[in-house]
Design goal:
Layout: H1 9-18, H2 20-24, E1 47-51, H3 53-71, E2 75-79, H4 85-91, E3 97-101, H5 103-113, E4 117-125, E5 129-131, E6 146-150, H6 153-165, E7 170-171, E8 184-186, E9 191-195, E10 209-212, H7 214-219, H8 224-227, E11 230-231, E12 241-246, H9 253-262, H10 265-274, E13 281-285
Parallel strand pairs: 1-2, 1-3, 6-9, 6-10
Antiparallel strand pairs: 3-12, 4-12, 4-13, 5-10, 5-11, 7-8
Length: 289
């Protein structure tokens, strides 16, 4: 996702909740949407899914263009450029589903916004990476270095864990990916700059290093496999991105159909070929609670 408005996460959330209708989308054509929800939804009605442009929109557009018609699914993809509006639009019914997030983020969002969005099926993982235009290896970072990290709760903890796993900082025992800056036991002289995840790639040259989400790295034409000086491991990674809906709509026949297509061999091959740089890795199957 690329965002042009330099809003803080809190401001973006407030804007989304108070101005959701105008911010999410101008009045759109919902004539194809089913008035019934869940298992009673019309399987022939249009299914509207919100997504980040890359890689989520890319994957959904592939399904729409190559698989949906044969499966009898009318799929519309609406792209959003932040981490708030897709969930807001799903909650208020402007879209039927979304595909852009992992479970730690969704759990935090639901808690803070009193929403009831639930995951349906895992699709892919985007390994978090540490990037630098001023150094070629992690050892180049040390006292006096400035590192940009995402400022949302889940991705910041994930970023701090990546830094700790690579010896850049030391976290308090047992904290892991739930870490906050207050949980850093030893900064080793490093200073942190907290930014919205979408803004970090454009600020990479202003800091010594930055932790960047996989989808934003792709948009910034960074190759995780080649450009990252440290990369999150994919095996056992709890941050798989999934298809999500408002609770009660899991049994919508269109959602069931889309979930099957997103976990198909065709989509697996598409992901592996389009993102051969390791920025996106297939991660099919049920979402662990």
């Amino acid at each position: 996702m690329r965002t042009t408005a330099k809003l803080t996460a809190a401001l973006a959330a407030a804007a989304a909740l108070t101005l959701g209708v105008t911010a999410c989308s101008a009045p759109s054509d919902t004539s194809g949407s089913s008035s019934k929800k869940g298992k009673d939804a019309d399987p022939a009605a249009k299914l509207v899914v919100a997504a980040s442009p890359t890689p989520h929109g890319d994957i959904l557009n592939f399904v729409r263009d190559h698989l949906a018609a044969k499966a009898g699914l009318k799929l519309e993809v609406k792209e959003f450029n932040d981490y708030v509006l897709p969930n807001t639009a799903t909650q208020n019914g402007e879209v039927d589903a979304n595909f852009f997030q992992h479970k730690p983020y969704l759990d935090d969002f639901n808690k803070k916004n009193k929403t009831d969005i639930v995951p349906v099926v895992n699709v892919e993982i985007e390994p978090l990476g540490l990037y630098s235009k001023k150094g070629k290896k992690v050892a180049d970072l040390g006292s006096g270095s400035t590192i940009a990290v995402p400022n949302d709760a889940t991705n910041e903890g994930r970023a701090l864990k990546l830094l700790a796993d690579n010896g850049v900082i030391k976290l308090k025992d047992g904290v892991g990916a739930a870490a906050r800056l207050s949980d850093v036991e030893d900064k080793k002289g490093v200073e942190f700059t907290e930014l919205e995840a979408a803004q970090i790639p454009s600020r990479l040259a202003d800091v010594d290093a930055a932790v960047i989400n996989g989808n934003f790295a792709i948009s910034a034409k960074l190759s995780p496999a080649k450009d990252a000086i440290a990369l999150e491991k994919a095996d056992g990674n709890p941050y798989a991105n999934f298809l999500a809906v408002k609770k009660g709509n899991e049994a919508d026949p269109r959602i069931t159909k889309l979930a099957q297509l997103l976990n198909s061999d065709e989509v697996k091959k598409f992901i592996q070929e389009k993102f051969s740089n390791g920025a996106v890795i297939p991660a099919f199957g049920p979402v662990k609670s």
